[in-house]
Amino acid sequence: MKKLIFVIVAIGAMSAGIWVSHTNKAELTLLSGQQYQWQDFNGQWLVVNYFAQWCAPCLKEIPELNLFDQQVKNTDTRLIAISWDNLSQSQLQQIADQYAIEFDLVYQVEPDSLPFVKPAQLPATFIVSPQGKVLKTLMGEQTALSLQQQIAQLKNK
Fold it and tell me: Rounded to whole angstroms, how far apart are CA atoms 79 and 113?
């Protein structure tokens, strides 16, 4: 009987450990090394920009995204960007350095965890509500002002 109880407790502990491990698994990792699950962004507006080094409009909007990121620091809004290409950490760091990218870049992402599908065209920007719902998809080059205006409109709905 003691063996049976031990086996049941062991199986329960193992199952709990697997569940905790799975639920705490990072769904995205920033170039800085910080790890997040999408639910970690609940309660704030999240602007997710998809870009690529070979995309001229993507590169052109970087200074505007840097400005937007500065404007929303210490507010309820956060900007992160995901490279459309599957780049190594060192390749992504090289791009960040080369183009003076100041906002957070996602180094690794679990594709099935995203609240949207990978865009077919670039640049693409998704605005995610504090509840984790994609409220707006913006295709094409954005400015700090256009992003501020879109978020203001969504907040007033």
Answer: 18
